[in-house]
Amino acid sequence: MKNQQSDKKSVKESNGSGIQKNALESSLYSSHRLLLIISVIGLLAACTIIALLALTVGSVAIPFKTVWQVLISHLPFVHLQSNWSSTTDMIITGIRLPRILLAGAVGTALSTAGATYQGLFRNPLADPYLIGVAQGAALGAVAGFVLPWTFGGNYLIPIMAFAGAVIAVTIVYLIARVGKTLPMTTLILAGVAIGSLMMSVTAYLTMISADKVQGILSWLMGNFANSNWDQLKIISPYIVVGVAVIFIFARPLNVMQLDEEQAQQLGINVERTKIILLAAATLITAVAVCFVGTIGFVGIIVPHIVRLIWGPDHRLLLPLSAITGAILLILADTASRTLMSPSEIPVGVITAFIGAPFFLFLLRRTKKAVF
Amino acid sequence: MKLFRVIMGIAVFGFLVLTGCSPSIQKTPLSNTYTDDIGRTVQITGIPQRIISLSPSNTEMVYALGLQDRLVGVTSYDDYPLDAKNKPIVSDYSTVDLEKIVAAKPDLVLADSIQKNDTIPALEKLGITVYTMSPDNMDGILSEIKVIGQITGKTQEADKLVSNLMGRIKAVNDKTAKFTDSQKPRVLFVTWYDPIWTAGNDTMIQYLIDTAGGVNIAVDLKGYTTITLESAIQRNPQVIIVMSSMGDNHTSLNYINSNDQFKATDAVKNGQVYEIDADIFGRTTPRIVDGLETLAKLFHPELFK
After folding, report:
1. Contact between chains at A90 and B261 (C-beta distance less than 8 A)
2. pLDDT per residue as tens digits for the range B270-290
3. N or C of chain A: less Cβ packing under 10 Å?
4. In CATH, which of 1.10.246.90, 1.10.3470.10, 1.10.10.10, 1.10.357.10 is domain A101-366?
5. What pTM was estimated for this model as a whole?
6. ipTM strictly over 0.95?
């Protein structure tokens, strides 16, 4: 009897704490929402300012004021007396502006994809290239360089890279699928195996085409040197849609951090969510690399930076990674085109160079478990 | 002196017995020492009769001196003159087939400096005579012709070739030397388009552009390097020279001609974008003088007809 009572009491107690926990969680949610809104607005403002400042520097010195005048003159209904040459206009609106926007778009895509993969695989080492996207894209691109194909003209390499990436991940997916489920470990292993296979073919093709090594290496290291508006027009719709889909699945991704079984019990269609997220992340990664090559470090470092500052909630992590990724890649590309000007440093070198130390600094400063 | 010969004779005889050879070779052939392009000391005994070339440039050089009958091995990239394609292939550009080289019993292998860390030590270990030849400027090419002439006993042919080339260079130089910089076209040389790779100072291309009467807009850069799109366009080249690459379907040329960003340059506005043969401009061989004349014609069509 006494026992029963005390049992009841303990049930009550636990109920009570449950209610308290719920209240705490809901207050956490609202404070999260506020934090999200403030952080997104703050980061977007920072991103815009950085982009506009990046527009004023380059290997050709153009006065700060002229850059603004040129920009403003392109706004609708504004007629300014132009006291600058058509070359200056071309440099600002035809070269720097699309290049900065493309860097931002690619940074957004890679960081969002990286955060998604890290969440899906529950692995801090996951990056957008984990399951063969980069290796497939590289093989496609190098085949485009080496084989005597002519279709697509200057779009041959991007088309081949995109096709390579999508085909590689499809093969990995088909291999890794067990019945109706997709075990994440099998997916990683299949990705690593197919990736190495493709790397070896890529390396061989590169080796036998000595006269094209320059172009191939430039592509593999990644660069924004030849950015233009057409590229931006082609890739941005995919990135917008892909990133939006991923944002929608932020909450299921949170729940899936527990355990796939538990997530299933909590009413989440785990298999469907996995496939949608994988497809979206793969698509935006493939689109991001097809014109500018495989830029490393952004996809793995940015989500960690965001997690260290704002915590692991995917509803914050995904959008903030997207903007932070844009900022980081715009900064990196600005360094890449100005540090050694008028030559360029491949942007992949810069992302590693600024990304790694900054990440280590954060890691040492917070001194807490990251993942 | 006689005593010395006797001692040497005994020594040689003893050496041959020890190494198990029969002392059938009796004449002591002429031996000369040369220093090659990577600073190795190369001792060449007698006049080489079986030559292997390990680069397309070296093969062109061998043909230019009329040594093709002695050529017993080439690389799979050797395509000039066409006859080189009929020679046995012992190497592609990066991997050298040592077995085939040994089997061809060469008495001289003409290597390239990029092979200095792998192939050249391997060939040395096999006791094969290797001379490395990688000139990177016009004087280098001319002196290399003379050295190869000397090694192969073709000094007359070499001298004739060198004076012919020097005469042609002087003919171009005489016509272009009178121009001031403002009378020369500004030239952008493009070896690859994504990103734009160009040739700066201290390159053969810089020498060719300068001698042909042009101003290289990338002369402030050093060596082969990238140039940002905005700098290339800001410097407004009047002539753009695009290097073709094997089987690449004029990608670089089409890019320059069709790209909106390049439409701001005088070269594209006036249709002064030309593609040239990478094999002529990328190899350091006597044909580079053909390249010089080609450029001079493009820069100053009125003077060179």
Report:
1. yes
2. 999 999 998 899 899 999 999
3. N
4. 1.10.3470.10
5. 0.81
6. no
